[in-house]
Design a protein that fits this description.
Elements (H helix, E strand, L loop, with lengths): L1 H17 L3 H12 L4 H8 L5 H40 L18 H15 L3 E2 L5 E3 H4 L19 E5 L5 E4 L4 H10 L4 E10 L10 E11 L4 H16 L6 E8 L2 E14 L2 E4 L4 E11 L1 H6 L8 E8 H9 L12 H7 L16
Parallel strand pairs: 1-5
Antiparallel strand pairs: 2-4, 3-4, 5-6, 6-11, 7-8, 8-9, 8-10, 10-11
Helix pairs in contact: 1-4, 2-4, 3-4, 5-10
Length: 360
């Protein structure tokens, strides 16, 4: 049997070496080592041999299998190398083509907080109102009971445009979103429950102020509205936004031309590991301004102050984001640094919900 095995080995090795491609080589492997292959058939005969025959023929058959296996592996490596060389010789890569980087966009924290505010106030029955960022002097100042001599009208605080509207009124970049309240009261009848988020502009720039910033204001006009309604609304809003039940508010008397009475709203906080954490009443920080809508503002918009009452409030969206998500410098919001955006940004599917958590 030894001579027969030698002849079989030479024939198999010859066919393996002559295989012209990987498909032909695979056919030779199956013919020799497959379930019905010649070498596999010889291995199956070992069980029927006597011990003496198995001792004599076994090493020869296993040696045939090893030789065929090694020859197939060597021929496969050769064929794969030849295929790679041919591919490298024929393919060309244009290194001057621009690289298309993978999409790495994130939702900016300001956009995320705006969505959180809309979700919270929608649950309270408020709708979102918007208005133009280039506003006339009357809606930005006069209708809000801001006197001609008020410092807010000064050139160093307000960006004035070099043109006027059709009625000759100066045009400005709005310094707050309060003109949206004026437009809403002019265009629809009470009851009114709105928030007005958006960009605003003032001539200021430091770690906590930028020339362009984001503000949200709220307005309620209805019958029988009192300061108690304002306090409850703000407490409900801030507890939902910061997702804490221990938020404590303190109202301090203040002055704003468009509200009477006017109150500054402080929120309690504690210091933990050197950082400011909202909740409790160990310390206090000013958070927003608010008050009952001034009767003169209602009259300017064509509403009877004897019938309608309301409250308004306003705070910076950028500051809300800084307090909730631990940011220290407002200027970084507008630098466009991708590293900052990757760290603080939100995924597109991080949609705020009251059931899942507005800060999820």
């Amino acid at each position: 049997m030894g001579s027969d095995l030698d002849q079989m080995k030479q024939e198999m090795l010859g066919r393996i070496q002559a295989a012209g491609d990987l498909h032909a080589l695979e056919a030779e492997r199956v013919a020799a080592l497959g379930k019905q292959g010649a070498v596999t058939g010889l291995l199956k005969t070992l069980g029927a041999m006597s011990p003496e025959e198995r001792q004599r023929e076994g090493p020869l058959i296993h040696g045939l299998r090893e030789a065929v296996t090694e020859a197939i592996a060597a021929r496969k490596a050769t064929l794969e190398g030849e295929a790679l060389e041919q591919r490298l010789a024929t393919e060309r890569l244009d290194m001057t083509l621009p690289v298309a980087p993978p999409a790495e966009g994130t939702v900016h924290p300001v956009s995320q907080v705006m969505d959180e505010l809309a979700e919270i106030f929608a649950d309270l029955g408020f709708s979102v109102a918007t208005g133009p960022e280039i506003e006339d002097d009357w809606r930005n100042f006069t209708a809000l009971n801001i006197p001609e001599t008020h410092p807010a009208r000064a050139m160093h605080d307000t960006f004035y445009m070099d043109r006027a509207d059709a009625e000759g009124r100066p045009m400005v970049l709005r310094t707050h979103t309060s003109p949206v309240q004026i437009r809403t009261m002019q265009s629809q009848q009470p009851p009114i429950y709105i928030i007005a988020p958006g960009r605003t502009y003032r001539s200021d720039n430091d770690a906590t102020h930028t020339p362009m910033f984001h503000q949200v204001e709220g307005l309620v006009i209805d019958r029988g509205i009192t300061l108690a309604n304002l306090k409850w609304t703000l407490e409900t809003f801030l507890k939902a936004y910061f997702e804490r039940d221990d938020i404590v508010l303190r109202l301090r008397p203040s002055y704003f031309p468009f509200t009477e009475p006017s109150v500054e709203v402080d929120v309690g906080y504690t210091i933990q590991n050197g950082r400011r954490v909202l909740g409790g009443s160990d310390r206090w920080m000013e958070l927003l301004g608010s008050g009952m809508v001034h009767p003169r503002v209602l009259a300017n918009c064509g509403l009877d102050p004897e019938i309608w009452q309301g409250f308004a409030f306003g705070c910076g969206i950028d500051r809300l984001a800084m307090l909730k998500y631990g940011m220290d410098d407002l200027r970084a919001f507008f630098d466009g640094d991708l590293r900052w955006l990757r760290h603080y940004g939100f995924r597109a599917l991080d949609v705020p919900t009251l059931s899942g958590g507005v800060g999820a």
